[in-house]
Amino acid sequence: MGKLILNKIYIENCIDTMAKMQTESIDMVLTSPPYDDLRNYNGYDLSFERIVKDLYRVLKKGGVIIWVVGDKTENGSETGTSFKQALYFKENGFNIHDTMIYYKNNPMPTTGNRYHQHFEYMFVFSKGVPKTFNPITEPTKYNGLANMKNRGKEGTLNYKKVERTKEKKVGNVFSYSVGGGISTKDKIAYKHPDIFPEKLAFDQIITWSNEGDLIYDPFMGSGTTAKVAHLLNRKWIGSEISSEYAKIANERLKEYIKDVAI
Predict the structure, then answer these.
(1) Which of 16, 20, 84, 161 could make an S-S bridge to 3, C-beta 3.0–4.6 Å?
(2) Taking the model in full, what pTM does it have?
(3) How many structural domains does the chain have?
């Protein structure tokens, strides 16, 4: 990694951290950016366009970015920023490999003439074809031979025999309960205003990386990506421009990582 120390949160703009990274040195990125306040994050200025270009440079071929994002409502309308960001990733060389859903079983109730907001997007951006895919599976109800049908160009249905296995990949909607004592047992993490569940990080890191791989989080926040990467025997690096949030994350990580670099 050249000038960078592994297993460390760099208290700086992620652009400055990535400037010290070697080209194509990161296996996976897992992050939740500050949504529509990206340009004014806790009082700091961040350039989304520059971040995307730098992420493309440092990510290995076949590497994957999990970008957990949502939209806020302004002047009676959702902003659509999540879709704009996804398209910008695509315009800058990434594949939109999948659009997954992070579904909250127990969201905060909302007022007004909208249904409760239950989900956020989890975009999977890949640099080419993903080099790693360790799918989470669940038991199938039936196994043995079955008819599979698909519709041909002329509109006709074609059938072929396929072998059903005892396990199948789960769908791309991931459901989690969230909130105090649920997203994590680490009380200090809740000093950060917006954390995602540890189980989400476990599921995505297991799926898109292998032991020994290097995981990067450009918006480390409360340290969830770092903690789970460590527990799953991955290396990690984080950036966090807010010294307040970096302090929370480092205090949290001390309990799990004896040699965490501060």
Answers:
(1) 20
(2) 0.88
(3) 2
**Residue 3 domain-assigned (yes or no):** no
Helix (H, G, I), strand (E, B) or coil at 49: helix
Percent helix / strand / coil, the chain, rounded to 5: 25, 30, 45
Pairing mode of beta strands 157-164, 144-151:
antiparallel
Nearest 10 degrees: Cα torsion 250, 253, 259, 260: -40
| 197 and 145 co-located in one domain | no
pLDDT-derived band at 13, boundaries 50, 70, 90: very high
117 and 197 housed in the same domain = yes
Q: What is the pLDDT of residue 259?
A: 66
Residues 6+ apart with CB under 8 A from 139: 166, 167, 168
For the record, the structure tokens of 143 come out as 């196994």
Q: Determine the Cα–Cα distance for residues 12 and 71; give it in Å rounded to an integer.
A: 25
For residue 106, being part of any structural domain is answered with: yes
